[in-house]
Amino acid sequence: MHSNLWIFIWRRKLSFLLVVSGLVLLGLWTWAILIDTTTTPPLPVPSANAEARERQQQQQNPGYQQVHIIQKLIAQANRVLRADRLKDNAAGEKAPTVQRLGNVRFLRPTQAKKAPLPLSESYLFEQERLKILEQQQRQRNAGMEELNANAEDERMLSSAERQTQYEHDLQRMGVPVVAGIGPDGPRSPNERLVHLDLKGAPPKLSFLKQLLPMLRALGATGLLIEYEDMFPFTGALQPLAAHNAYKEDELRDFLECAALHGLSVMPLLQTFGHLEYVLKLEGFEQLRELPESPQSICPSQPQSMALLEQMLTQVIELHLQCIGKATPSAPTLPIKFTHIHIGCDEVQRMGECQACRQRLRSELFLSHVISLSHFVRRHWPQLGVVIWDDQLRTMSLSELQHSQIGSYVEPMVWVYASDIYRFIQPQLWDTYAKVFPSAWVASAYKGAFGESLLVPPLQHHLENNIRWLAVIAKEGGRFAKGLRGVALTGWQRYDHFAVLCELLPVGMPSLMVSLSTVSKGYFSTNPRDNDLLRVLQCVFQPDSRRSGRPWLELHPNAHHSQLFAVCNYPGHMVFKYALRLYDKLAEVGAYLQQTREQSAWLSDYNVRHNFSSPLRVHELIARTPILIEELRAMAREAQQLLWEAYDEYTVAEFVEQHIYPTIEALQRQLASGATLLQRRTWPQRPLPLTLRIQEDMGLVTDRQPH
Questions:
Q1: Is residue 248 annotated as a catalytic residue, yes or no?
Q2: pLDDT for 97-111, tens place per residue?
Q3: Which residue in 166, 293, 534, 611 has the most C-beta neighbors within 10 A?
């Protein structure tokens, strides 16, 4: 029997081993659970050396202190929770309170008991939270350490290293780099005037009013207003005013609005050259230096000085009435009208009439300027007189000092190119400083790089302004009273007879960039520190750190930055339209050049001899009607957009100058193509000679034209 039992066990030995192993494992697991639930792990007692090391670590690592505080708070919270659970368990063992009302008994509802959390699980939960908090704190500390390291690196950088980093940022943005101009460079000029050239294309005063708060926000301190024929002359001078000149009450309102925004006003009235708007008229032609040219006035005629004195009187008195005193809406506002600009630049025909030939050109100019300045100082002693400096550049130091012109006027030195010292050498600065106690300078934001440009080259104008900052810092110390400030000029025509150059709304991006740079003393590469972004209304906040690209990108061959094509500002619709028109005109110009000069079937020779392939002509003129219609649509769009800033005369001139000539060229091409397509038979070669061309070119031939 025993042998049978052992045989049975031997055959089932594997099953018995598995059962015994399971029982042993079950017993061990039960014992481990009983030990964990009945005992708590002893807390280690820190030694003196451990405490010292902990204190040293806390002093070295501020993040460790924060984690240690969080650990203490969590431990205290756990103790409070355990005490609350013990109270709940003790209260739950009591019998529920019974209330009687007659024969009805009411029992207070008992809340469901929550099983107390085992101490081991509570401790493990606390450890997990501590690990998470410690990891988060470690990440925050790492980020703060990186920021502190960067800030420390910036503080440790020398001035030269900061300048190098600044110039590197400028190069990435396409902003011109000028040595010495940067955050650690010289401060900005005291006076920053914005020139408004109103001759022949006057913006509506309602549009100019929109510019005033923006100009003030960008750092402008005043306006240099050149009226020419837009001033409302009265009396005997009434013919000098254009038919669309400003009304006197409208102009007063605008000047008072400029004063409310804290902007001074310096009127500019030409008194020697650039008097075409006066001398072109019947009744004033006898005052010309030369009968055939209305450019300059003859200073030797007594009537000339009488006319100029009347013009100065009307301009100055109007400004004194509405600017030289406090306005009713702002009775305590300090209003500045301190200077009158009398022009006197580019006097091209001087000393050529019979009376003026008896005197030197320099003597004629200086005596004329001093006479006008003496008239102003005698009647309005509070006003200073400013003139353009170009006529003084060729005069010697002795001539200038002998005339004492430095006691009468302040020169405004103007250069619109990037190389300022090419036109104003250091010797000339020294001469000016010995003659004049102070002076002004003039840069440009439009109207300086082409007589009929559509869009101003922003980068060139910005470089001109930045280089002027360097010149002001270097040469200002020569003058006894320093350089007063800078005028940012924006010419609308090169002279009275010239066509339009860049319109004021189209020049707004260039003005905003240059003005903000001059006002700050340098171009700020930080978008949060640049005043330009404070006046632009953008749908996004430019930030190079997010996009990886500079927030402003300028390029030598581009007229604008993408920033101004997506943001809003006064005149932004006109600027964006001008960019599209510029691209369209370039496209049509390339098309006309290709079909007329580069193709072999629609050239002038083909048209002149009426000899070409109809199939090729069809292909070449297929796009012409489409382009004509596109340009006509853009002309209608120009009328709608420009109406906000200009009257119908300026709008018509703009369309006639920029769009209509291209439409005419397309129509001529279409007509030439139609003529070529009408022919059905063609002559044998060689084609007949053109006698007129042979004669014009002086060619000799023994063959008579057919």
A1: no
A2: 444 444 444 444 444
A3: 166
